[in-house]
Protein 1
Amino acid sequence: MTTHALASSPAEQARIPELDRIELITVSLPFVQPFATSVHSWAVKEALLLRLESGGVVGWGECVADPDPYYSYETTQTARHIFKDFLLPQVETGLTFAELGQRLKPVRGHGMAKAMLENALLDLVARQRGVPLHELLGWPSRRIPSGISIGIKDTIPELVSAVEDALRRPYHRVKVKIMRGKDVAWVRAVRQAFPQIALMADANGDYRPEDAPLLRELDAFGLTMIEQPLSFSDIIQHAALQRELATPLCLDESIHDLDDARAALSLDACRIINIKQGRVGGLLESLRIAAHCHERGIGVWSGGMDETGIGRAFNLHLQAAAGFTLPGDTSETSRYFAEDIVEPGVVLSPDGFIEMPTGPGIGVQVLEDRIARFELQRERLR
Ligand code: OSB
Ligand code: MG
């Protein structure tokens, strides 16, 4: 298949229906346990949701931005501002998704706000047609191999026991967060306890180029990859680091769109890309990045942003596409929330796979009464 055939989704030519009602809703869901990266620890999931109504059909989108800028410069407030003042004014009945994408191009960055809009429109159109989202995207259903991302812990035994719990489910790959001071000894302990598992580490940009000798010590543990060891803004230094390491590097925060992915690959800055549809401007740009990587033999996988069940469902449908061969970060709902805002939640089969939702659109039922209970703010725009 050519890049074009792989990248060009039937959804590009789908048309935007007349929107009768548009609402932005901010919800806050308590996490079962806090989630910590090298940068910050989150005890709740605050998410901006977009609810679109057309002819009695409702479509949902979720913005993956946090209320704070500790993963990305985008926040729930910047996404609200960009959506209301710059994205929504470009939406017109009858435009194709490809045309809408072109209209949104002049808005620099703000991929999380753009993804929320595209998600809600795609869910709406798929529901109106009565087809599952993966079908609108052009891919048949498949079972998704699941991985898990384990946050920074206080002690090494706590980390080892969290990995042990994950393997009992069983997840297909375990990612552990690392940071300066919680790295080589921590990964060594996990590797010694579980010599055979697919294991990787994610630093969320905590290291500097001069830490290369320390990071090279991780080569001893046969990691599938090291994710985003250096700054979110630095592709060049990742290229230099990749030359020093045997372990493949994976970029997350550094990749905001197809152009970033092209730059990273032409510089050999990584051998794997973590595609978060919510970070790169949506599902259609994700498919373009996946196709570009697939053609070059570069592995991709779907990351996560601890989404509610709405965003998690979008991540699942994306993984129907070719190229998503590595297990992603889509984990079971019960790992994040005691109560979610959709039904059914994500559960692993006994062999560690997730079944693709089968209903129209994202294929899960959005529980509006639950949303009302977790709601911080609701703003009607139309
Ligand atoms: O770096 O991949 C990351 C969660 C929030 C912000 C950044 C990251 C993550 C995760 C968890 O690793 C992914 C998930 O379980 O959804
Ligand atoms: Mg990451």
Protein 2
Amino acid sequence: MTHETAGAPGRDFIRDIIESDMAAGKSQVVTRFPPEPNGYLHIGHAKAIQINFGVARQYGGRCHLRFDDTNPTKEEQEYIDAIKRDVHWLGFDWGPHLYYASDYFEQLYEWAEHLIRTGKAYVDDLGAEEMRAMRGNLTEPGRDSPYRDRSVAENLDLFRRMRAGEFPSGARVLRARIDMASGNMNLRDPVLYRILHAEHPRTGSKWYIYPTYDFAHGQSDAIEGVTHSLCSLEFEDHRPLYNWLIEHLPVPSRPRQYEFARLNLSYTVLSKRFLTELVRQGRVSGWDDPRMPTLAALRRRGVPPAAIRDFVNRAGIARANSVVDIAMFEHSIRELLNKTAPRRMAVLRPLKLVIENYPAGAGEELEAVNNPEDPAAGTRRIAFGRELYVEQDDFMEDPPKNFYRLSPGREVRLRYAYFVTCRDVVKNSAGEITELICTYDPLTRGGNASDGRKVRATLHWVSAAHAPRAEIRLYNPLFARPDPGAGGDFMADLNPHSLERLTGARVEAALATAIPEEPIQFERQGYFCADVDSAPDHLVFNRTVGLRDSWAKVQGAG
Ligand code: ATP
Ligand code: MG
């Protein structure tokens, strides 16, 4: 990965294909992002979204958003709404091209009858278990169903009665009549329709039969005039079936399918099945729990969409599956937030500091820089006074040699304020330090000594009289191992320390009005944002990501 290409889509095999198609005179590029509305989008979907919308935009084409809503028992309007919101948030727009596979149910049904009439499909009465047993396996061919040679008339009659709701759910299926001995299991007479007496979020109770994903997918692409059906690698083995269907049906266009590797992230599961389980079992607070890899969760956590796009571009598009280090994602987040996030001061684990030579009842305002990376961000005024809070771990009573922060007799700088020297500590009956007694040097206002003397540490702080209390939520990886589930049960790999709540933090007064999702750097601590749970009488902040970047180090060393 070079710095020149980081963040911008480079060349990849998909763009190569499109460019050679264009060179050959096929100038149209129509793609689609086809989510099944059975869960929220995750960062893996961001890759598919970015590829599909990205190439359409780049080559002057269009990209459709199409809901593959063929399985009504698992699909919900909530998911449809969330998917639309998340695609927009990520920065992409389908314009007027919003479609649903369910819009094509009537057409798909007619095509199913077409296959029956041409002897290419039949109604099978075998139960699911028998059908599986007769499918064979990779080394053994399958066996023909005893219903495979039904007459066209009988098949048509049964299929129409399936549609009419005459048979109970699961009683029969419609199968393609291809080849039970095919080396490709997907061609061993795959199921095209199943009976399902279920309400559909869009078609209501109109249908008693529903097409399978495999029957709906390619034909939906053909109806929409999709030129390049881009999908992830697990559909490679389905391509021969899609092509077979396209060949045997009077479809209006012939899409070509190309497969790319899925995005996988270390310490993360990116399967809707597993994510649904986490939500359903209450292991997380919901689809947008900031520890989840969903776009909704990343948004709530404070990750800007541009950081996700940058990361997906850096991860690249390839034909081979791999796992991307989560540190690379965090690197993209930090790099962007470092440039854009305003700086504020927040003390996560407060320790009171009293300046004994600062006049009681007095106070003043000091000037603080909003973002040293961005002069246009300007400055702000922050309150200072006799009583402050500093971070507990910025003080040690008996410091080791390499500890340069506050300790008895030691002078340090309070950022934007003054030099202070620790004179004494106050302890409670349990022997815990409850207060630091310090003096300040009035000639160091703004944080510099007029005599040029230096200090080795600069601490952040807040004014006790002005700093509201806040809850801080620190997030760690949801899973404790890089490859969750590799041991068999991914639930067993959950990190018991994925959420750490600090309830007594004190934050700079300006943070009382922080807006959810808007990134802020807490100086020396990391990037944070107000949570949607935050309220004026109970401020809540999420840590988006810490400040330290282990990925840059790894790259620098390599
Ligand atoms: P999951 O496996 O998480 O349930 P899915 O593939 O079933 O995901 P769909 O709603 O069918 O989810 O996905 C819509 C599109 O997103 C598909 O074209 C799929 O190829 C793509 N996609 C899903 N997960 C990833 C991923 N991790 N990386 C890249 N593309 C993905
Ligand atoms: Mg899928």
